[in-house]
Specification:
The protein has 303 residues and is mainly alpha-helical. Helix content is 77%, strand content 0%. The protein contains 13 helices and no strands. It has helices at residues 2-23, 31-52, 59-82, 88-95, 103-145, 154-162, 165-178, 185-195, 198-209, 219-243, 248-257, 266-272, 277-301. The longest helix is centred in the middle third of the chain and has 43 residues, at 103-145.
Length: 303
Amino acid sequence: MASFNQQFLYSIIIISLGYLLKRTNFIKERDGEGLSRIIFNLTLPALIIVSFHDVTLDASLILLVVIGLVYGLIMGAVGIFIFRKQEQKTKGMLTMMVPGFNIGLFAYPLVEGIWGSKGIQYFGMFDMGNAFIVFGLIYVIGAYYSDSSTPLNIRTITRQMTQSLPFMTFIVTIFISLASIPLPKALVETANIISVANMPLSLLLLGIYLNFTFERGYLKLIMQYMAVRYLTGIVVGLALFILLPFNNMFKYTVLIGLILPSSMSALPYAVEFNYDRRFVGTVTNMTIIISFLLMWLIANFVI
């Protein structure tokens, strides 16, 4: 228990440091764009290579991919139903934020600190299913309800997914592992050195991006959104935790996975489809705080 709380304490300190550096103008929020590119294109792929180059897939790991995908599809339908009476652009903005999770920036640094590479393997498989939602379904929903001229077809969606270096690293690394092709030792060791930076950089970036300004008229919509996202996640997560006959790491992954924050991809999509980017950014940040508290409660009272 002490190790869990210690990891959360360190995470709070690093996130707070990132926020403080932004508030004191040592770092600008726009600097986070460069840092995010380093994380998504270098440190996160390196962490994936280290965690998955020798993974052995079993039924529970494959099921995590299915859960991440199917749950996202269901939540997309739930969002469309719940917000069906909203004005079209508001409906699109809210609905695209319901499915999908922020695993790369939020979950990986905490999971790595608590469970190490084994935790990354489990959450990574869940993230693989989630990736189809983040780069596929969310993009489709955002484009469909917007007034954007962006073409909505298989080619566009496929391009979105293949442009994600972490996702493609997942696919290639797991394929190589299943084919029993050993990666060069120098590559794995170099990736291991680089991957060490993923946790502190990700937590710093979360702090840099923290922002809590929004119009009061949006408060009711925010509360409705939070209720849909977290009540569903908690209920389904607890049900799967109790009913599925797999090991504890699998159960922790499902329980925590379904209450993770909104996907950060919603923000660039909001820019592309001309939604209210301040609202999307604020709600995404609020889910980070809520998920962090829920994860701490689970770590102390369930795990």
